[in-house]
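User: New here, any thoughts?
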Amino acid sequence: MFWPIIFGGSWDDANGKLTANQQANVDAIAYEASYYKEFGIDPLTKFKSGMGGMNTPQDPIITGKLAMMIGWENFYNDERGADGPIGVAPFPYPAAKPELKNAGMVSPVAMFIPVKAKHREEAWKFMQYILSEEVQIDYSIDGQSIPVLHTVLDNPKLTQNEATKTLWDFYESAKSPNLNGFPNSIYINEYLQALNEETERALKLQISAQEAMDNVVKKMQPVADKAKK
């Protein structure tokens, strides 16, 4: 669910109220649906069905059938670079909202220690280790990913390392205050499924973008409320 983030949307208010139907999200879904209105549902569906999978000989990005896509920092590392066929650019943002420059989406993964864990102290030490600066630097180099610590984004081991050159733009983007993520919660999968289902209906022009997002909140707010108890 990238487009709403680019339009300045969010999925909850951090206090349990779901905000899928806020105006920014509705505008984003309507924007995406406008392509289906312009080019037709069947032609676009047929066009997408003819594309191959990622990292296959028929990959639409590699073969040139697809001009651009939204992806993560570890996509197409071998094809990126000064002489590569693929480049990287920040997300676009509405011209009328320059404050949304460098908006983007992050995908945080929660780390936790179960209350009944037999080795809680050891688990806590491991967390401290894995989140230390040196380990995050090594992880970024070896895993070709953005470290989770802001304090290492300017570290020369990353920003002046030829081995991480394809990530230099991402390190800079990771400093943006306009990054947002989908809320981690016990109902995250159900929430994502509801969003995908209703967005698909809106894109197929079966319902409006507003109706789609209202349906999501109507379905998921009781689930969110129950989770808070």
The radius of gyration is 20 Å. The beta strands are 104-106, 179-181. The chain has a mean pLDDT of 89. Residues 118 and 179 are 36 Å apart (CA to CA).
